[in-house]
């Protein structure tokens, strides 16, 4: 526990951390990777190069300082981060390295304002927060490896099937190379794929949502190919699309993530997705149909047009069920889309449409997609009076901002 003096000093730094947070985290990564380049085998290079990681970490540091006297308030965020850390292989020995370079970065950026007293207090606070992460992650590691079919670290999986779902999305069906059982998962969770790509100096690790229901004997991921393969985001997706074939072996971590469907509730569930954000929604939809056949589920998907709309047939097959309704929004439909009635609404999902077509007051909402889509859906639901308890969302990568993320930042490596 921290003494009152330390807590007071840490809280006094909140305005400074808010103002200089991104400068501090940018310097932090420069220092840490300069001294420990081996950590680049773990950290997401795309997030680093696009400054998303720096922004997310700055928000996390700010929140930790603000709530240093009430860490229970940020425990949900700690658990979100811990899921990512477990999936990536972050271990206790990494925390002292992070702490050392974070304090060095604060000193570099704040200069004389970073007095020895402040650095000592921040060091103590970091130690408490790091201990909380290590404890939570230890439980997650134990659960991941101790469950039936579970494992620690990365396990070899064979690509059993590779299926093109649209012009930009391809599914990969993964089965364990050792032909043994695999860990179950909750609808909405993800796995990490670790790739060693020729001509790339460091390993790349990416998380992909599982796009099928649990209990199938395989994991399925559905990956969007990024248009510009020269950009950091495109290196992995293009490698998967171009170089990975049926029979290829991939290194996979056990499923993780806290964005999951609550199957203990029987309220209507509304699943909203944009683009490749439909992958966890498909898993949730199939799970509701399989284990909660009486529960009303509304599946709403937004895409440009049928060329980039993946997994349409799977949703259509379930839409004939009495408890399932689905709607398709195209903002740039083709002439063929129009002539064949391949969509329900031209344009974007709006607050007015949601108010007219979904049970706003008593439903649970789950949504995933590009950040602009997420912001629009979140704002519409809030304007309609939907409570925070009814709203559940997922980001691919570090959390950005839905109304500045409602001040909840998620940092991932």
From TrEMBL:
Residues 1-138 form the Globin domain. NADP(+) binds at residues 275-280. Heme b binds at residue 85. FAD binds at residues 190, 206-209, 395-398. Keywords: Detoxification, FAD, Flavoprotein, Heme, Iron, Metal-binding, NAD, NADP, Oxidoreductase, Oxygen transport, Transport. GO terms for molecular function: FAD binding; heme binding; metal ion binding; nitric oxide dioxygenase NAD(P)H activity; oxygen binding; oxygen carrier activity. Belongs to the globin family. Two-domain flavohemoproteins subfamily. In the C-terminal section; belongs to the flavoprotein pyridine nucleotide cytochrome reductase family. This is Flavohemoprotein. The lineage of its organism: Bacteria, Bacillati, Bacillota, Bacilli, Bacillales.
């Amino acid at each position: 526990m921290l003494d009152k003096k330390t807590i007071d000093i840490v809280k006094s730094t909140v305005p400074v951390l808010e103002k200089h947070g991104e400068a501090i985290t940018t310097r932090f990564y420069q220092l840490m990777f300069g001294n420990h380049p081996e950590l680049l085998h773990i950290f997401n290079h795309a997030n680093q190069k696009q400054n998303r990681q720096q922004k997310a970490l700055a928000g996390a540091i700010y929140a930790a300082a603000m709530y240093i006297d009430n860490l229970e308030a940020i425990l949900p965020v700690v658990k979100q981060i811990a899921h990512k850390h477990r999936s990536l292989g972050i271990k206790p020995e990494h925390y002292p390295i992070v702490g050392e370079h974070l304090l060095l970065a604060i000193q570099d950026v704040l200069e004389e304002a970073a007095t020895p007293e402040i650095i000592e207090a921040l060091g103590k606070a970091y130690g408490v927060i790091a201990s909380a992460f290590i404890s939570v992650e230890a439980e997650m590691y134990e659960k991941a490896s101790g469950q039936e079919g579970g494992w620690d670290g990365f396990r070899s999986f064979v690509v059993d099937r590779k299926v093109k779902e649209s012009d930009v999305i391809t599914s990969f069906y993964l089965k364990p190379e050792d032909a043994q059982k695999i860990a179950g998962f909750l609808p909405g969770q993800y796995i990490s794929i670790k790739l060693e790509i020729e001509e790339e100096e460091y390993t790349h690790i990416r998380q992909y949502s599982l796009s099928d229901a649990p209990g199938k004997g395989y994991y399925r991921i559905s990956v969007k190919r990024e248009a510009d393969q020269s950009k950091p985001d495109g290196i992995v997706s293009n490698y998967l699309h171009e170089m990975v074939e049926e029979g290829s072996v991939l290194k996979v971590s056990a499923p993780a993530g806290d964005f999951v469907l609550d199957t203990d509730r029987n309220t209507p569930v509304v699943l909203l997705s944009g683009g490749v954000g439909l992958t966890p929604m498909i898993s949730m939809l199939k799970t509701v149909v399989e284990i909660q056949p009486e529960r009303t589920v509304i599946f709403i998907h937004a895409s440009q047009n049928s060329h980039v709309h993946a997994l349409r047939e799977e949703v259509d097959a379930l839409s004939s069920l009495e408890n399932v309704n689905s709607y398709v929004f195209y903002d740039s439909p083709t002439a063929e889309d129009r002539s064949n009635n391949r969509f329900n609404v031209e344009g974007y999902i709006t607050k007015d449409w949601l108010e007219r077509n979904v049970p706003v007051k008593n439903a649970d909402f789950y949504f995933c997609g590009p950040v602009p889509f997420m912001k629009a859906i979140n704002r519409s639901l809030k304007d309609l009076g939907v409570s925070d308890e009814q709203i559940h969302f997922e980001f691919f990568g570090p959390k950005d901002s839905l109304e500045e993320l409602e001040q909840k930042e998620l940092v991932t490596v």
